[in-house]
Amino acid sequence: MEMKRLLHFVHIAALLLLTMSPLEAAGGKKEKRKRRRENNVHHDPPAVNSTSWFLGKLLRNYDKLRPPMQDKSTRVELGIYINSFYSISEQTMDFSVNIYLRQNWTDPRLAFDPQEGGRDMIKLEDGYWDRLWVPDVFFRNEKKANYHDVTIPNRLMRLYSNGQIWYVTKISATLSCPMDLKKYPLDVQHCPMMLESFGYTMDVLYFVWMKNAVDMDDHVSLPQYKLQGHQLEDCSQNYTAGAFPCLKVTFNLKRDIGYYMIQVYVPTALIVILSWVAFWISIDSSPARVSLGLLTVLTMTTQSASARASLPRVSYIKALDVWMSVCLVFVFASLLEYAAVNVFSRREIPKPSKASSLMEKFKGPSDKSLRSLTEVENGVNGRKQPPQYIRDPFGREKARMVDKLSRKLFPTTFILFCLIYWPVYIFIDM
């Protein structure tokens, strides 16, 4: 009986083992298929329209140290967009600008099929900028310059299907501007911006201005200047290492005279006119006339020093120097005029003696009578009296005549100077 039960149990166990084996095999196959799918997800090639994968493939064998063209010189088009002009300084002879520097060239190694790339143009992000060949443009007359990185690097690079690259960078630069101040402040300054290749000679690349090479924001304004235009030139230069490409744009900046009229010309002209008031003050009012003369001279000297404080020390004469010097001469001359008037008004002549009067009254006296008269005049003991002086009755009249002449001569001369000064410095090119 027990033997039968044991056999029955073994039979049931065998049936269970036979039933579970196919299920485990099926489960194992499912697990293998799942793992295979996961592996396929990680190792299948990415989609064709993935920009990163496509650029990685395009740049796989790219050499950024080699220029695009090997058999000929690479053409690079340059242009600038001016955001602002600021800090034009005569003292340091420089000017500062904020610009977008635009560069355009073609690299045949980067040409691609638009269908493969999924588009005709690809915008390159930050990581790819340093993997491409870029022209080594720098500012030849730069004093200092910097890129902008707030809030992201202010650079834009686009790649087109024909291999053309459009590259724009935002730059703030301080550039030297040799100024000719002979006509200051009635001058026009010509400030250059020179773009040159630092390491490539003209047999490797050359620069040309693109169409509408210089553009400007409509709201750009200068506090003391007016931008009259610009000229585009080629400034390529031969060095010992070879001929390097260079382009130059020259900005014509005309100084606005309004500030200087208010701060310099009108005040100094009024000081000169004020000095002429002394010609109408009485000759006897010495304190008033001397004080007015000294005050105008000192004020003119202070004004002249203040106007020249912001200018460099140059060896030639400026238009402002001529104006200030002439005004100072007029003011000083009015002070000297009173000195001359004072001399005339206080001039003294010897007082005529009694003997002289008698001699004039009686013509032809004898020598004896003359000696008698002289002895009476000189005293009993024969001692001579010191000569006596009286004011010249015609001296005050001469002083008044000098004042009257000065009232006409000084204004006329100053007006004549103005009629010569302004046309010469405004219309004549020096």
UniProtKB/TrEMBL annotation:
GO terms for cellular component: plasma membrane. Belongs to the ligand-gated ion channel (TC 1.A.9) family. It is found in: Cell membrane; Membrane. This is Glycine receptor subunit alpha-3 isoform X2. The chain crosses the membrane at residues 257-280, 292-311, 323-344, 409-428. InterPro entries: GABAA/Glycine_rcpt, Neur_chan_lig-bd, Neur_chan_lig-bd_sf, Neur_channel, Neuro-gated_channel_TM_sf, Neuro_actylchol_rec, Neurotrans-gated_channel_TM, Neurotransmitter_ion_chnl_CS. Residues 1-25 form the signal peptide. The keyword Transmembrane helix applies. GO terms for molecular function: extracellular ligand-gated monoatomic ion channel activity; transmembrane signaling receptor activity. It is a multi-pass membrane protein. NCBIfam families: LIC. Keywords: Cell membrane, Ion channel, Ion transport, Membrane, Receptor, Signal, Transmembrane, Transmembrane helix, Transport. The keyword Transmembrane helix applies. Residues 264-351 form the Neurotransmitter-gated ion-channel transmembrane domain. Residues 55-256 form the Neurotransmitter-gated ion-channel ligand-binding domain.
